[in-house]
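README: folding subset

This subset contains proteins for which both the sequence and a predicted structure token string are available. Records are stored as plain text. Below is the entry for Sterol desaturase family protein (338 residues), shown exactly as it appears on disk.
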Amino acid sequence: MNSILQTILNEIIGFLSLGGIIEMFKTGDFSRLSTLSGLLGTLYTLIPALLVFEIVSALIMRRFSRSHYQIPFLVYVLNRFISVFVSFGMVGFCIGLFEKHAIFKSSVTWYWFIYGYIVWEFGHFIYHYLGHKVRLFWCLHSTHHTPQEMNLFVNHAHFFLEAPYADVIRTTVCILLGVSPTMLFLIMAIDGLWGSFIHIGDNIAKNARLGFLNKIILTPSHHRVHHAKNPLYMDTNFCNLLNIWDRVFKTYQDEMYDVKIEYGITREMKPNSLWDSYFGEFVCLFKDMAAAPGIKNKLLYVVMPPGWSHKGDHKTAKVTKEAYLQESRSHIAEGVGS
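--- output ---
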């Protein structure tokens, strides 16, 4: 019984990122706060603290709904259970495999940090874009998009295999383009912190545009747009902090005041179903493959975008958005004509 209670306590401490702080107070050694990595580790406690505050404020305002947190929480627990048996060292593996093939070597300086972050965002963009445009990768990524409300727990709702393939892409891009491993780990720490924060719910930040920052970086408002299933918002804002690559590849989208965000994915889901959230897209993929004639069509379902059909009646995000924009233009033209 004591070991079970200790395990639960360790999980709570780990989730709240309190291990480092507890150790500092135990030893009385606060020197880790003088280092960037130690300071970032301490700042990580702000995210779970904000999550607790988010839940408490929702309870006080009587806006709390268990369904808003149930699936992300169950996915988090499931992933923690699986991680006991499956351990990935993909970042270290890719560094060891590709570092000798880097086009040049960078150092740990402020200007190489800027370069490294731009490269990291490029790698993140590639991974994230593929997660929406390749059906197999969407099956992994869709779990993160199934919650129908935005809150900080959504950051923990991921299929357990998504992180390894994401890290392979991002790390490989960075190492081959000369980002030093030391700089890479620093960038990953900062990016992880911001990546958690941008899932903040409207209990804390109703208007998540963050003032002038909305024109400079990707804010929680931009990421709420990314999680929307509205036709206008689909497949946009793939970056995490710097919006440079979304602007380059024309996937950047601001939150519009007259288009209210609708969260979730476009297909109808079973309410509060962990199974459907975690495996539902795989089931749909297998059904489409089974019904498709010929090996070519079956394989195309794996690599083509979600919504692609061998019959030609595609319902991809691109087709859906084009139809929406065409309809919007028609309404505007009618309004001008009248």
